[in-house]
Amino acid sequence: MYADLQTKRRKKVKIKKFLEDYKGFKPSRYSYADIKRITNHFKDKLGQGGYGTVFKGRLSSDVLVAIKVLNNFKGNGEEFINEVGSMGRIHHVNVTRLVGFCADGYDRALVYEYLPNESLEKLIFAAKRKDRSLSWEKLQDITVGVAKGIEYLHQGCEQRILHFDIKPHNILLDHNFNPKISDFGLAKLCSKEQSAISMTTARGTMGYIAPEVLSRNFRNVSYKSDVYSFGMLLLEMVGGRKNIDVTVENTSQVYFPEWAYDRLDKGEEFGIRIEDDAQTGIAKKLMIVGLWCIQWYPVDRPSMKVVVQMLEGELGALTMPPNPFASTDPPKTMGATIPRKPAVNRDLPTISEME
């Protein structure tokens, strides 16, 4: 009991110090009484996550918000600090806006803009997209928006922000289905001049975590881990399913990225809902970009700036990536072979992980 009280006090002191340093930023500070009033005493629950529960709220007759009430018993206050510290610095059309926060005693909450079309996850996996609700053109627009949002985090802020949890669940959609990156609870900030941080523990969601984040042999993790996660997200958007799906009829299709690479490499049909050549071109482009992003070695993955260029460019300008599932294969182009980069000097400059 005494130990729990001491832990709570340490968390409170840590957050208090952070908030004193944070006074110059824009988001409003609310009391817990404000939060209860805005949510109508937590009447409308939108969702539940590992670190808290999200409720719909109303700031005025015209302004709706989504409020995440954080669990007091989870984490050490770092998730709150990450969210407020990261999102308070961000002003981009493809990143969710932090309206305000609450740090009232042991009660903590985060107030975001309300996005009515919920998450990309629901859009991708609804009925395995038998009845596609969005066109391939709109899906491409969504991928470009997400890519631009991540590029901004990596290059457009005063400090580089590594998200570490890019996945469909954390991409929210506004009334026009414009995508916005959310949930910065695992984010880390580092200088733009330094490319990587040393990880003490893996962070992220299985299925989207880059190999270097999971492997003790890599240890040093760069912004390229977000590129990998984006690639996995992109391939799920194309396939309309989880990348790993044991319910498919053919065992070759269990792992969609490998199946997609094999089909592209052999010039075979994709077997997904496509109605004309234009849609085929979009699907193929998204697959190729996704496969570039999930290359095993971080140095072989493009930066998000290049990813945006690839997504906005023509399919004919793209080359087939190396096979991410057989690292000895050389990359292929339309009729030519490019020497693969040697597996040396792959280490990136490192800075210590800041707690």
UniProtKB/TrEMBL annotation:
SUPFAM superfamilies: Protein kinase-like (PK-like). Keywords: ATP-binding, Glycoprotein, Kinase, Membrane, Nucleotide-binding, Serine/threonine-protein kinase, Signal, Transferase, Transmembrane, Transmembrane helix. It is a single-pass type I membrane protein. It holds the Pfam family Pkinase. The keyword 4Fe-4S does not apply. Residues 40-326 form the Protein kinase domain. It is found in: Membrane. SMART domains: S_TKc (SM00220). Residues 329-355 are annotated as: Disordered. ATP binds at K68. The keyword Iron does not apply. Its main location: membrane. Belongs to the protein kinase superfamily. This is Rust resistance kinase Lr10-like. It comes from Gossypium hirsutum (Upland cotton). The lineage of its organism: Eukaryota, Viridiplantae, Streptophyta, Embryophyta, Tracheophyta.
